Amino acid sequence: MNKVIFYCITLLFMPSCKTIFTENMRTRLTTDELKKVQYYTSSTVHLERKLTSGEAKTIDGNIKLIDGTYYEIVDIPKMTPGILVLNGGTNNFEVTFDPISNRSLKFTNMPIGAADAFFLSTDFNAPCFDESCNVMFDGKFFVATFPTALNNTHPTRLLIKKQRSKTVSKTKEKLKGVRITQ
Question: Fewest Cβ atoms nearer than 10 Å: which of 51, 146, 155, 166?
Answer without folding.
Answer: 166
